[in-house]
């Protein structure tokens, strides 16, 4: 009887896991290798026309990965062939791979809980939003002299958007530069929030760089888009946007691309006015509460805010303004040299199978322009060092956004090395 029960539970669990990624049944990811700018343009048109999901953007020298839904698969393949664009199937059964990866993450979660006693945040599995949120509250309770929890607003669906202020002087020493780390605006980029919570861990629970506490005040916002982030855990793994439903057609296609919603050259390039697009810019600049929260933090701590990092994945890149046209700001020399210092220190502690970091202007490195990004807005507002981190991902399987959980701690550790390098460069300025 007992055995029967266990078997029943296991079958139920298996059924739940399989049902979860049903929507990705028949989806295929393709590697595309355009060899001319004409071919690159065709790929851009296919993305718009067939709502192809871009995992990583191709350039003429660099392979890209795109995700194609079954209804348009034949049309996309036909267009690639007609235009003689080199392509190959990358993952032919997306749902099967997602199911497999869910099982791995679930197993590691259970193991990690056993080891940590449920207290500190584990780094060997991806955590759902409530777990991260509990951690922020717990840290604030345990270290009241060092940490303040702030909840400036709730998300569109009512989840708390919270950040921690970490300071040895209660933010009252106005000579101290402020460093602001933000994560999780793009929901599916799961490796982003752990790099921000790890910074909290390294500042508060396991401080090995006392100068970083002594010399700076810190603002840490691990999940700026909690609705989208949670939706990727419970519903659609590759959801990118917020979950708001304001404006036309948003009931069918909710959400805004948070990194196209800032009031910087808003909706002029690399964005879409179609709510069903993954790069939908919204009805207006700052239409989203999730971006207004970040905007307000930036303005509250100017001119003390010297470094702003917004954490994304993937690509192993450190990107700086301007992202709408590839021109350079008057602070470009410092942006570049500090960017290189951060990347060098990351690469020193990275893994041989991780790509080396590339540093440069957003447009030049990624190969496409996009308006309305956080990095540009912060710089325009007056933050001298403002960067987008594209954290590491791997090409194999779905290891781009679904980087194997065995690498979470590694990415957290190496990204912290970059943050430390950036902070220490500010101290010398
Ligand atoms: Zn992103």
TrEMBL record:
Residues 125-426 form the Peptidase M14 domain. The active site is at residue 390. Residues 1-19 form the signal peptide. Its cofactor is Zn(2+). It comes from Plutella xylostella (Diamondback moth). Belongs to the peptidase M14 family. Keywords: Carboxypeptidase, Disulfide bond, Hydrolase, Metal-binding, Metalloprotease, Protease, Signal, Zinc. It comes from the Eukaryota. This is Peptidase M14 domain-containing protein. InterPro entries: CARBOXYPEPT_ZN_1, M14A-like_propep, M14A_act_pep, Peptidase_M14. It holds the Pfam family Peptidase_M14. The keyword Metal-binding applies. Gene3D superfamilies: Metallocarboxypeptidase-like, Zn peptidases.
